[in-house]
Amino acid sequence: MSAPSRGEESKEEEEEEEEEEEANRLLKEEEASSLSSSEEEVAYEAGEKILVVDFEFDTVDDASVPPFSWKKLWLFTGPGFLMSIAFLDPGNLEGDLQAGAIAGYSLLWLLMWATFMGLLIQLLSARVGVATGRHLAELCRDEYPNWARLVLWFMAELALIGADIQEVIGSAIAIQILSRGFFPLWAGVLITASDCFVFLFLENYGVRKLEAAFAVLIAVMALSFAWMFGDAKPNGKELLMGILVPRLSSKTIRQAVGVVGCVIMPHNVFLHSALVQSRKVDPNKKGRVQEAINYYSIESSAALAVSFMINLFVTTVFAKAFYGTKQADSIGLVNAGHYLEEKYGGGVFPILYIWGVGLLAAGQSSTITGTYAGQFIMGGFLNLRLKKWLRALITRSFAIVPTIIVAIVFNRSEASLDVLNEWLNVLQSMQIPFALIPLLTLVSKEQVMGTFRVGPFLERVAWTVAGLIIVINGYLLLDFFISEVNGILLGLLASSCTTAYVAFIVYLVSQSGILPSSWVNRLHKGFSSTGN
């Protein structure tokens, strides 16, 4: 065989140099891409995500969905249970006990259907997060102009602060009960504020450790309220009738609105779309995305089934104990434990302390998830990349400072805390459209979701549910302002705020694509003529 000529050798050397240059160029592009992406706010860093491995089906094509695996379901289990805690926060528990005391078993059917509606909204939130690889706040940042983005962020922060005040005060009440009044309400608030550091401590040990801690808190709630359910011995026939037979009277309208309103928490919609990104799922592999959506749907359904049972326990305990009694109209989160003690007495495990333990678990778990949601909301809308401890501290301060002020000002009587709770419910109800409308807008857009956009039927169902929730909460707002707003100046201020509020909702709906184009053009002309 003849040796290669000098010309051939130089040609090979040139080809090798070109290949090396091309490899270097690709490497630099990859580094630049990772650098630019690192400048963007993300829910979880790559090293924090849980790797979901195929135990039995390694050869499955990326375009097809692998067969069901119990081991994989276990790896995907977690985000849904963190999301479900918002269905069990102290505000929800107060709605449950008041519904039971005033309406008896008659609103259990509504509690069930409200949970189904909440499940639908949360499944859409998870779908957005998995299909796009980004959470709702990040997507809103790109979808809307700066002014609308800032308004949405401000509204989300208001909703979060309102929810957090209820949750922190709920924890403080539980601490007061368990310490037999040794700690005043404001001291309980400060103790609860320390959960921020517990959260940071757990997060440093990984996502699974954090999820396990929340699972323990949910188990504590379930055991506490199930124990109370067993002590109360509610009427099984009436309970079943309450679930299966829809009943509603003029006397229970307010409680019915409260039951539905408590289920949809605006910050929870943002939270769930971020939590699902704790697992490594490549948005470019359709089979893997669909698989993740399927597993998250199963675990979210299981989580909300557990939350429904806990809410059912609380409602039926107070229905059995106080429905038709003189205490029914005055019962609230503050005095509920003492009323239970008067009704059922002490015993080996006094029901007052069982209630206190369950309430503490509800308050602590919901305040920590509130801190979590606050990080995603602030980081997503404002694209802030801060250290975890600093971001959590800022988020916690947003709620703790007003909560301490509220605890000192409203700690004069039980009635004043009930008034505060009503105002906080109204505040959160006002924010619901600003989470639901962007969610439904994005989940219906092919440019955002690709092949995972919802179909026409599910889109109509989702908008119908969202419209129903908004109308129900609108009734709550109207009823509240009619009874609370007095005087010409307050009336004018409320009217001006209402006009701006409705105008922004109309703007969001006009951007959603749900309205006919002729209607949207008329709306834009109306806004333009108003601006001129």
Automatic annotation (TrEMBL):
<feature type="transmembrane region" description="Helical">
    <location>
        <begin position="423"/>
        <end position="440"/>
    </location>
</feature>
<dbReference type="GO" id="GO:0005384">
    <property type="term" value="F:manganese ion transmembrane transporter activity"/>
</dbReference>
<feature type="transmembrane region" description="Helical">
    <location>
        <begin position="344"/>
        <end position="362"/>
    </location>
</feature>
<feature type="compositionally biased region" description="Acidic residues">
    <location>
        <begin position="10"/>
        <end position="22"/>
    </location>
</feature>
<feature type="transmembrane region" description="Helical">
    <location>
        <begin position="108"/>
        <end position="130"/>
    </location>
</feature>
<feature type="transmembrane region" description="Helical">
    <location>
        <begin position="461"/>
        <end position="482"/>
    </location>
</feature>
<feature type="transmembrane region" description="Helical">
    <location>
        <begin position="302"/>
        <end position="323"/>
    </location>
</feature>
<dbReference type="Pfam" id="PF01566">
    <property type="entry name" value="Nramp"/>
</dbReference>
<dbReference type="GO" id="GO:0005802">
    <property type="term" value="C:trans-Golgi network"/>
</dbReference>
<feature type="transmembrane region" description="Helical">
    <location>
        <begin position="150"/>
        <end position="177"/>
    </location>
</feature>
<keyword id="KW-0812">Transmembrane</keyword>
<dbReference type="GO" id="GO:0016020">
    <property type="term" value="C:membrane"/>
</dbReference>
<feature type="region of interest" description="Disordered">
    <location>
        <begin position="1"/>
        <end position="41"/>
    </location>
</feature>
<comment type="similarity">
    <text>Belongs to the NRAMP (TC 2.A.55) family.</text>
</comment>
<feature type="transmembrane region" description="Helical">
    <location>
        <begin position="488"/>
        <end position="509"/>
    </location>
</feature>
<protein>
    <recommendedName>
        <fullName>Metal transporter Nramp2</fullName>
    </recommendedName>
</protein>
<feature type="transmembrane region" description="Helical">
    <location>
        <begin position="183"/>
        <end position="202"/>
    </location>
</feature>
<feature type="transmembrane region" description="Helical">
    <location>
        <begin position="393"/>
        <end position="411"/>
    </location>
</feature>
<keyword id="KW-0472">Membrane</keyword>
<dbReference type="GO" id="GO:0015086">
    <property type="term" value="F:cadmium ion transmembrane transporter activity"/>
</dbReference>
<dbReference type="GO" id="GO:0034755">
    <property type="term" value="P:iron ion transmembrane transport"/>
</dbReference>
<dbReference type="InterPro" id="IPR001046">
    <property type="entry name" value="NRAMP_fam"/>
</dbReference>
<feature type="transmembrane region" description="Helical">
    <location>
        <begin position="214"/>
        <end position="230"/>
    </location>
</feature>
<keyword id="KW-1133">Transmembrane helix</keyword>
